[in-house]
Design a protein that fits this description.
mainly beta; 8-stranded antiparallel sheet; 7-stranded mixed sheet; disordered N terminus
Length: 260
């Protein structure tokens, strides 16, 4: 108790919005949630990620050149099969390709684009920090509140009613293991829903936009939400699988917009 007021702190001690923060990372299957006394409510979510930078950039040197990059995310889940408890590892690879480009077209394709986290519209003071295995801390850039972000071909990804976007960037994370923490405030302790989309950052010709990787959607309605319910006891929330069933690998291809 401080100054006669209770302080509620909501701790999410695994992964959600930042699961799979970088291409090539792995993440756990649940979020542990604990409610402590206090006010206002502070929500903290953290996960350990292995960063493997995947980026290509330059200027096309010949007419008809196609620029390519493969972005991947790995999810690790505890499951129960007919023989008992098991671990399911799912690998999702998205092949990004441009159409044949004119000579002299500048480009940069970065698999480690920002994570688009959809939070309640009254969430505030959104911050993110990454701690390397060596102990070095990096404050990650956060853009919020946003109502929409640019996608390819002039489209926009729009936040759902009563929700907002927070873009959590990772421009300076080095290769290796990091613990990433996202924190934000809510006016009171209540049940809330949250979604996250992992993206690639695309700069090509005159365009700069985000390409969703997981899930491959252009509308937030297509992304699965988790529901966080405050509780006096420690609880856990399951993270949606990368894809349905017990399939271990899937891939997809997307064509990138690249106007001159």
């Amino acid at each position: 108790m401080r100054r006669g007021r209770h302080r509620l702190i909501l701790l999410a001690l695994a992964a959600l919005g930042l699961t799979g923060l970088a291409a090539g990372c792995s993440f756990e299957s649940e979020i542990a949630v604990q409610l402590l006394q206090g006010a206002p409510v502070t929500v903290k979510q953290s996960t350990r990620v292995d960063v493997t930078p995947q980026v290509v950039g330059g200027t096309t040197t010949r007419a008809g050149q196609v620029v390519r990059i493969d972005c991947s995310i790995t999810g690790i889940y505890d499951v129960v099969d007919p023989t008992g408890p098991a671990v399911l590892v799912q690998l999702y690879v998205v092949h990004l390709r441009t159409r044949p480009l004119p000579r002299g077209t500048p480009y940069q394709l970065d698999c480690s684009g920002p994570v688009v986290v959809e939070l309640p519209s009254d969430a505030s003071n959104i911050q993110a920090i990454a701690t390397h295995a060596s102990g070095l801390q990096t404050t990650l850039p956060v853009q919020a509140p946003l109502t929409s972000v640019a996608l390819a071909f002039g489209k926009r990804l729009r936040a759902e009613p009563a929700m907002q976007f927070a873009l959590v960037g990772q421009p300076s994370l080095s290769t290796g293991s990091h613990t990433v923490e996202l924190a934000f405030n809510l006016p009171e302790a209540r049940t809330f829903r949250e979604k996250a989309i992992h993206t690639a950052q695309v700069s090509c010709g005159r365009s700069k936009y985000l390409q969703p990787i997981r899930p491959l959607v252009t509308r937030m309605a297509g992304a699965r939400a988790i529901t966080v319910q405050p509780s006096a006891n420690e609880t856990s929330v399951s993270i949606p699988h990368l894809f349905g069933g017990i399939v271990a690998y899937r891939q997809a291809t997307r064509t990138l917009s690249c106007p001159r």
